[in-house]
Amino acid sequence: MSDAVVLLRQTLPAVLPRLRRFARTLTRNVHDADDLAQIALERALLRAAQWRPPASGAMPEQIETAVRSWMFGIVKNAWIDNRRAHQRERRVVIGDDGMTEIADGSHSALEEGLSIAAAMEHLPEEQRLAVSLVLIEGLSYQEAADVMEIPVGTLTSRLSRGREALAASLCAKEQAT
Fold it and tell me: Which among 3, 19, 129, 164 is placed 20 to 30 Å from 157, CA to CA?
């Protein structure tokens, strides 16, 4: 096992809480988020040799940042893969019988109060992802853009629109109470 793989395996436990939080932002469900984090960890361990550590002599924080960015990309890609599979499955299961998806009613009005989490659920996916990576997870614009596989300018635009939508949503809820 190479030194890079050993370093990755040593750093993964420190990154796991942030991966789970990021997965919760994407899935909007604790159980699905745990499943997503597990899938991402499995993929990372299977492909550990593909991870490129920072230059030798890097500080522990730099190593953790490199692992976190790589893992966020894996989480995002696993989430996209799962959503595509779910959409294909729904098309097959729902078919042409005219049935529509029924909301499960699991969100009570109390839960949706003035929380940022509730406001984030109403953001479009690309904005929610940008807000989560930059504002919640603390990635730099470049790191977040790399995870999302978009130019920095596109990330900035999505982040700006996401912030505006969050502010408007929170202000509207505050005025309603």
Answer: 19
